[in-house]
Amino acid sequence: MSKRQVAMVMDLNKCIGCQTCTVACKTLWTRREGMEHMLWNTVNTQPGAGTPHGFESMGGGFRDGVAQPGQRPSVEDFGKAWNFNHEEVFFGGKGEISLAADGGKHGKGPNWDEDQGGGEFPNSHYFYLPRICNHCTHPACLEACPRKAISKREDNGIVLIDEDRCKGYRFCQEACPYKKIYYNEVEEVSQKCIFCFPRIDEGVTTACSRQCPGRVRFVGYLDDPEGPIWKFVTKHKVALPLHAEYGTQPNVFYVPPLSPPKIDDEGNPTDEPRIPTEYLVSLFGNGVHDALKTLERERERNKRGEKSELMDLLIARKWLDMFGPFQKHPRDAARNRPIPQNQQKPRAPQQQVSEIRFYTKEEFKKGGRA
Amino acid sequence: MRTQRVKNVAPLLDPADPGWRTVPVEQVSMMPTPLAMQPTPYIRNSWEGREYGRVTDLAVASVHDGRQWALRASWRGVSPAGKDFPDALAIALPVRGKPVLALMGAADAPIHFLRWQANKSVVASQIAMGIGSSARGPAITCSAQARAEGDRWQVVIARPLGGAGDLAPLVAGRKTGIGFAVWMGGNDERGGIKAFSIDWAELALDA
Ligand code: SF4
Ligand code: SF4
């Protein structure tokens, strides 16, 4: 077990499904060749199939401590990065042509059932569920790997794949019940969320949390009584892991969403919430009942003008307080490092507008320069 | 198992070369690697009751010309296209000491592997000192040519004679041990999920 564990709490009451987190991660980490389909961070609409589609029935994890067989999601299950016929549409000179993904033969995208949700009008409902690798305390991926290519960092519990040891066997992909491992067909290795460890090491929080306009994501050490995580998870018990029954002890926790009351046939509000509590229990376990009660109670206190530590934390008035000890600006962290010799000269002016493309591993290491 | 001396190995690098017809073929018995020896509980649990390592024998012939050594192996097990893992063959040779083949060698007794896989044209040189430990092996100029005839693979792997450091010795007029592993990619076989020759066979190179 690691000495300490970094963890994330996501407040589902505030996620607006904007995918800024997804894009922040994509542009920072998954721009190498073979990573086109990778979204280490995903945001899906619930109830829904998620990403990869139907991941909750793909097996893996542990039952009574015993490793369970699982499936490998295919690129199609994750949802491919589609190619569009922009050239043809804008410059092709044909009036009739319309925009088509993969020549009209596309499969499902990673966010296929966006905003569909569940329930019948007037009680239709949905909420967004952002997901990253959970950097589990009992990581099924790590335990499945015969190459010892996956490790859990001693100092902060971040789970990492050593790409030099990985041979692309993908037992980890089968074993992870959250299906948060991707396979790079070009580099022939498995890859996944790294909890932005190079930033965390410098005191900078993850890109997804820092970019989130909804102030959804809190970051810190699980056992730090001064930090936000411990207060949500341990003190107030309002943040719960997704599918704890998978047995991996995830370190990403969710504040379950409150919802307006269900409407009866006469159009009058009932005592039941619009999002069925049983559905939330199926995701976050029995702790949902108490968590929702606590949230409602504290909200009422706030309304009465009384002080509520929990509400103050959730509102996140002071943005930087959301990130525990990881409040540094990335620019300031970068300033403390000497600029490498080969990057000290001014850059040649760009000749043309750069196109969006994926880099080779070598180009990527040089900051995307050939 | 004998490696016959021939005048020139070069034409025999093609598995279809008629020259192979006069080289004696030996059958090597193969079996699935025992489930209990798979290195992680996940692999043991997920392969329990699932068939693997179904290749029961390998037809092997080998030649050398004083400089090059070539081995032709043939077995039934061509996987359909579009699968996640490739069909593959590995030849194991002991580097020094008395490594246990099933344990993939030990720290003081490494095993050198030459591995061909159907989706690559190069042979990988690997060194292993225990299960799950294989790493890049010594640099060596190897070649492999493969053809699928119906459901049979015919593969010729060649390397120079000699040997120093971590390169397993193959010397004219001397004996060594040889072992094999076969993966059927279409059945998701990779890593320790494979068929292997239970123990070393003696390999005697003509002087
Ligand atoms: S979420 Fe999956 S990939 Fe991430 S640590 Fe847990 S088991 Fe491993
Ligand atoms: S950036 Fe924040 S609000 Fe937007 S989808 Fe991600 S978690 Fe939700």
Could you characterize the architecture of this molecule?
- The complex is a heterodimer of chains A (370) and B (207).
- Helices cover 24% and strands 14% of the residues of chain A.
- Chain A has 13 helices and 14 strands.
- Chain A has helices at residues 20-29, 75-78, 86-91, 140-144, 171-175, 197-200, 207-211, 228-235, 277-284, 287-303, 309-315, 330-335, 361-365, and strands at 6-11, 42-46, 62-63, 66-67, 127-131, 150-152, 159-161, 181-184, 189-192, 217-221, 240-241, 252-255, 261-263, 269-273.
- With 207 residues, chain B is mainly β.
- Chain B has a six-stranded mixed β-barrel.
- In chain B, a hairpin with a 2-residue loop joins strand 9 (143-149) and strand 10.
- The structure holds iron/sulfur cluster (2 copies).
- The site of one iron/sulfur cluster has 14 residues of chain A, from helix 1 and strand 5.
- Chain A: Residues 326-370 are annotated as: Disordered.
- Chain A: Residues 358-370 have a biased composition (Basic and acidic residues).
- Chain A: This is Respiratory nitrate reductase subunit beta.
Content-based structural category of chain A: alpha+beta
Strands side by side in the biggest sheet of chain B: 1-3-2-12-11-13
Number of strands of chain A: 14
Whole-Å distance between the termini of chain B?
Answer: 14 Å
- Most residues in contact: chain pair: A-B, 19 and 14 residues
Please estimate the helix content of chain B. Answer: under 10%
Q: What sort of overall outline of chain A do the alpha carbons produce when their principal axes are compared?
A: globular
Strand order of the largest sheet of chain A: 10-1-12-11
Percent strand of chain A equals 5-15%
Helix-strand pattern of chain B: EEHEEEEEEEEEEE
Distance between the termini of chain A: 41 Å
Rg result of chain A: 22 Å
Secondary-structure topology with pairs:
The complex is a heterodimer of chains A (370) and B (207).
Chain A: E1 6-11, H1 20-29, E2 42-46, E3 62-63, E4 66-67, H2 75-78, H3 86-91, E5 127-131, H4 140-144, E6 150-152, E7 159-161, H5 171-175, E8 181-184, E9 189-192, H6 197-200, H7 207-211, E10 217-221, H8 228-235, E11 240-241, E12 252-255, E13 261-263, E14 269-273, H9 277-284, H10 287-303, H11 309-315, H12 330-335, H13 361-365
Parallel strand pairs in A: 1-12
Antiparallel strand pairs in A: 1-10, 2-5, 3-4, 6-7, 8-9, 11-12, 13-14
Chain B: E1 2-5, E2 26-32, H1 41-47, E3 57-64, E4 68-76, E5 88-94, E6 111-117, E7 124-128, E8 135-136, E9 143-149, E10 152-160, E11 175-183, E12 195-197, E13 201-205
Parallel strand pairs in B: 1-3, 1-13
Antiparallel strand pairs in B: 2-3, 2-12, 3-4, 4-10, 5-6, 5-11, 6-7, 7-8, 9-10, 11-12, 11-13
The complex binds iron/sulfur cluster (2 copies).
